[in-house]
Amino acid sequence: MTGMERVPMGPPWSVDLIADLHAGVLPPEVAAQLRPRVEADAEAAEILWALDATLEDLHALPPIPMPADVAARIDAALAAEARPVAPVVSLDEARKRRNRRLGLGSGVLVAAAAAFGIVFAVAPGGSDQSTPPAAQDSPKPTSAAQAEPPLAVKESELGAAVGEVLKAQNYGPLETPDRLAGCLQGGGITSSGKPLGISPINLEGRDAVMAILPAGLGQYRLVVLDPNTCGPDKPEGVLEDETIKPR
C-alpha cells in the first residue's frame, strides 16, 4: 500500500463499496484486506452472493442480435469514413494555382478565348489585325466515368476491389436502382435501401456490375451481376456472392 489507500472500516459497508469489491475495481492491496472481512459478515456476504447470481443470470441470457436497420446505418457510416476526404486548400493558395495555370497578361486572354471557343485571325505578314471573332462549336465534354475502363477484378480477389467500389454510386449498364433490385431478387438476395457502393467492373474479361451490400455489423456482402442476363427469376445472372469482413 502507498499509505494513501486505507481499508474502509466496517461492518457495515455500503452497497456501492461491496459492488466495487465484487467488480474488481478497488486497488489490489485494499481488496486483499477487505474481502475476507466482507465475506465474514453475513449481511455483506449476502450482497456478494446476490451480485454473483445476477452475473450468472446475465450470462445465461441468449445473445440479442442487432436490428438490421441499425447494422445497415453503422455499415454506411463506416463506409463513409473509409472514403478519401478532399484536402482543404486555402483561398490564397487556390488563387495562386489559378494564376499559374492561366499565366500573365496575354496568356489570360488566350486562355479565356480558348474557353469560349473564340478564334482570332492573324493577317499575313505577322501583323496583328483584329477581325470579328468567329464563334466555333466547342467539343462536347466526355465524362471521366465514360473515358476510364471499368475496374479489373479477379474472381478470387473480390475483396481487393471494395475500396474503389465503395467510392462509387454508378449503376453502369443496370442504369437504375429498380433494375438492381430485380437482379438481386433473381438471385434470392434481399437488401434494404441503396447499396453502400456500386460500379461496373471487368470480371476476368467479362463485363459485370459489382454491388456492396450491408451484411451485419462490420461485414460487407459482395455481389457481382451480369447485366445481360440478371433479372427477376434469373439466378444465373448472379456471377459472385460473397460475404467478407474488412480488415
Highlighted features:
single chain; 247 residues; alpha+beta; five-stranded mixed β-sheet; two-stranded antiparallel ribbon; 9 helices; 15% strand; elongated
Would you kindly provide a written description of the structure presented here, covering whatever features stand out?
- This is Anti-sigma-M factor RsmA.
- Keywords: Membrane, Transmembrane, Transmembrane helix.
- By secondary structure, the protein is α+β, with helices and mostly antiparallel strands.
- Among the domains are: about 15-60, no CATH class; about 145-245, no CATH class.
- About 40% of the residues lie in helices and about 15% in strands.
- It has nine helices and seven strands, in the order H-H-H-H-H-H-E-E-H-E-H-H-E-E-E-E.
- The protein has helices at about 15-25, 30-40, 40-60, 70-80, 90-100, 105-115, 145, 160-165, 175-185, and strands at about 120, 135, 150-155, 195-205, 205-215, 220-225, 240-245.
- Strands 3-4-5-6-7 form a five-stranded mixed beta sheet. The chain has a two-stranded antiparallel ribbon with strand order 1-2.
- A hairpin with a 2-residue loop joins strand 4 and strand 5 (about 205-215).
- It is elongated.
- The two termini are about 45 Å apart.
- Mean pLDDT is about 75; it is low at about 105-115, about 120-130 and about 140-145.
